[in-house]
Amino acid sequence: MARKVNNDLVGRSIYVDNKGRAVYYSKREKRGYRIRNEDASKFKALESRYLYGILAFLVACFLFDLDIIISICLGLFVALTIEWRFRQFLKNCTIIEGYEPNGNPTLSFTTDDSYQKLGTNAILFIILGLLLMINAYFSPQISENIKMTLVSDVAGVLAILYGLKFLYIMYKKYRKEKQ
Q1: Helix %, strand %, coil % of the chain (to 5)
Q2: Which of 9, 54, 124, 166 lies most in the core, judged by the most C-beta atoms within 10 Å?
Q3: pTM for the complete prediction?
């Protein structure tokens, strides 16, 4: 069963050691990195490094109408710069060689959450996604700009998929309780 870490570090590669501390596990290196509570916010920001690169690409390409090659280079530059900062950050953490994760990784929304919380998140994300997509076609400022329409549609689809994730978690919880 997934456990929550007391400093809110959660994710696929975040585990809890025997003393309840957060450990980032790198599968490629077969190494664990103990994340201190005071470094949790910095870790969260650096962990989203690829998302920042994608956002930099989207902003450069669609909002500033830069050439696609320049936008890709800018996105790669942002992602690689943050990747370098992330690796420097990990060097300052306590390194656990040969770390073997015990149990499941921590998850932000687990089957321990109530049906009400999961259902509310599912409904709100699905509605958000639908509204983003509807707004893209009925708002004159967005519907005239094909790039903004595309960005709005992609964001809407991602929001709907995230809402469906909560429905799937609810379904897993229901199946588990039925057994």
Answers
A1: 60, 10, 30
A2: 9
A3: 0.64
Residue 1's pLDDT band, with cuts at 50, 70 and 90, is very low
Counting every residue written for the chain, the total comes to 179
With b for 16 or more beta-carbon neighbours within 10 A and e for fewer, the 16-47 pattern comes to beeeebbbbbeeeeebbbbbeeebbeebeebb
pLDDT(146) > 50: yes
Two tokens, residue 17: 């050691």
For 89, the 3-state DSSP assignment is helix
CA–CA dist 144, 146 (Å, integer): 6
Q: What would the two tokens of residue 32 be? A: 């664990």
> Which of 124, 152, 122, 126 is CA-nearest to residue 137?
152
CA angle 146/147/153 to nearest 5° reads: 90
- To 10 degrees, the CA torsion angle through 136, 141, 143, 147? -90
